[in-house]
């Protein structure tokens, strides 16, 4: 069982000694992962549908839909945190390819998503709830740094009662 906040920190710490200068954080939420890199001098862009009211040096917040963000720049790290499940499978596969294409050589992608075992996968059949094997196949040309597949602690959010999610954390590096 995982604590999402602690697990995010664990994955981010794996990148602590890397030379990441630019970060795109899709679905940045409260910008906790963004802040980690911004404090280390990286130029960070965070995108979320909900407003982030934190002032962090080196952090630019863009309120909006991640699907509409133009990935015209290259980033040393792109984080997609709990966003690809909002896409239908074909759109999600194209979006992940866009993320990969916008990642610098030897840069990183950190995907956090609900797996095919999550209860929402049974309710939203058209959306993308991958297996770890599907994601690793998509990233077969990259190096897998770390992966984790587990169920969350019981949580309550968005007006839902107590529930758990089955999540995949996947950190990869462009070769």
Tell me what you see in this structure.
The chain is globular and about 40 Å long. It has a single domain (about 5-175), classed as Vaccinia Virus protein VP39 (Rossmann fold, 3-Layer(aba) Sandwich). The chain contains 5 helices and 7 strands; from the N terminus they run αβαβββαβααββ. The chain has a 7-stranded mixed sheet, sandwiched between helices. α2 links the parallel β1 (about 20-25) and β2. About 25% of the residues lie in helices and about 30% in strands. The protein has helices at about 5-15, 30-40, 90-100, 120-125, 130-140; strands at about 20-25, 45-50, 60-65, 75-80, 105-115, 140-150, 165-175.
Features:
24% helix; 175 residues; Rossmann fold; alpha/beta; seven-stranded mixed sheet; 5 helices; single chain
Spell out the blueprint of helices and strands.
Layout: H1 4-13, E1 22-26, H2 32-38, E2 43-48, E3 59-63, E4 75-81, H3 89-101, E5 103-114, H4 119-123, H5 132-138, E6 142-151, E7 166-174
Parallel strand pairs: 1-2, 1-4, 2-3, 4-5
Antiparallel strand pairs: 5-7, 6-7
Largest sheet: 7 strands, mixed
CATH topology: Rossmann fold
Number of structural domains: 1
Give the N-to-C terminal Cα separation: 31 Å
Main-sheet strand order equals 3-2-1-4-5-7-6
Radius of gyration: 15 Å
Silhouette: globular
């Amino acid at each position: 069982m995982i604590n999402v906040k602690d697990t995010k920190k664990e994955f981010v710490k794996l990148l602590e000694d890397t030379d990441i200068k630019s970060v795109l954080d899709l679905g940045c939420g409260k910008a906790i992962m963004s802040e980690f890199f911004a404090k280390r001098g990286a130029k960070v862009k965070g995108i979320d549908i909900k407003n982030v009211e934190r002032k962090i040096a080196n952090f630019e917040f863009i309120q909006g839909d991640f699907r509409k963000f133009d990935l015209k720049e290259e980033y040393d790290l792109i984080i997609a945190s709990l966003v690809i499940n909002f896409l239908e499978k074909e759109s999600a596969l194209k979006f992940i390819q866009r993320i990969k294409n916008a990642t610098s050589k030897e840069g990183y992608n950190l995907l956090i998503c609900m797996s095919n075992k999550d209860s929402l996968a049974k309710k939203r059949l058209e959306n993308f709830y991958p297996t770890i094997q599907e994601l690793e196949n998509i990233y077969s040309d990259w190096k897998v740094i770390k992966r984790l597949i587990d169920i969350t602690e019981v949580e309550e959010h968005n007006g839902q009662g107590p529930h758990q999610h089955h999540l995949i954390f996947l950190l990869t590096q462009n070769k």
